[in-house]
Amino acid sequence: MTDVGGMFAGEPDDPPKNIGHEEKVEFCQVKDWFITKKVNYRVKIDDLKDAFPKTKTINLKKLTTVLNKYMEDFGIDNNLKLAHFLAQGAAEVSQFNKAYAEENLNYSVKGLICTFSRFVGDKRKSDQNKNLFFADDYGRKEGQKAKKKEIGNIAYYNRIGNGDLSSGDGYEYRGRGIFQLTGKYNYEQFTKYYQKNYDKEMDFVKNPELLCTDYEITVLSALWFFKNNVMKKLSINKNTTSNQVTAIVNKNTNSYLKREKYFKKIIKVLD
């Protein structure tokens, strides 16, 4: 992924000397001047190792690199915000061992009925209502694999900016990345943000698979989601609970307690 600085074309002939480790220096070739931008918040790889001892070091190194490069762009500038972000991410993608996550859609018949209101267990209901679908025809059961593409299209058509059932948008814009960005609308909005701030040529509507194949973009999509869905609704402070954040990130999950445990452990490590 290309890192494009909006006003900077390249490095000057003579970079300044003695730049401290706590400063990020960005150069401008317009005349003979440069700009220094103070960087006040960083996460250490050793802290992440302590927080996630079961996670592969290579995964934590990649995560640390991306966070330190971008997290302040998304307003994560203190331990509390980072701890909430990491706790949610850890629960979603197995302590960051499965960051290249993509919505599985390998639902059993029962799983479809419990998860999506458009799937029913009574064929008479689906025959009488064109917006309901008989789960037995699509879900995983003995002698039948889950029909993932059809499940995705049915579950998400005419929702979150997706087109109708025939558009294929439901499956095309299924959940991807650490926080499972879902729906064409969210892919469009993330694209707009990314093009404005980093690379005007990047298009996640045309290339949605990048959210689960490019690690930097995977993390950036999560940072973007966290900023726009959590931090815009909650003013994160010492009184903010893990349950409040979880209710926004994944309201119907059964992992509220797990996320709270992650948060308590992470904030202890970071502090």
Throw out a few tags for this protein.
disordered N terminus; 271 residues; 4 strands
Question: How would you characterize this protein structure?
Answer:
Helix content is 42%, strand content 5%. By secondary structure, it is mostly helical. The strands form two sheets. A two-stranded antiparallel sheet has the order 1-2. A two-stranded parallel ribbon has the order 3-4. Helix 2 (57-70) packs across helix 9 and helix 10 (242-249) packs across helix 11 (256-270). The radius of gyration is 22 Å and the shape is globular. Residues 1-38 have low confidence and may be disordered.
Structure, briefly:
With 271 residues, this protein is mainly alpha-helical.
Uncertain spans: 1-38
Q: How many helices?
A: 11
- Largest sheet composition: 2 strands, antiparallel
Q: State which percent range the strand residues make up.
A: 5-15%
Helical content band: 40-55%
Structural class: mainly alpha
The overall average pLDDT, rounded, is: 87
Task: Report the span from N to C terminus.
Answer: 32 Å
What form results from the Cα inertia axes?
Answer: globular
Write the layout of secondary structure elements.
Layout: E1 23-27, E2 34-38, H1 45-51, H2 57-70, H3 79-92, H4 109-115, E3 119-120, H5 123-128, E4 133-134, H6 148-156, H7 169-172, H8 184-197, H9 215-231, H10 242-249, H11 256-270
Parallel strand pairs: 3-4
Antiparallel strand pairs: 1-2
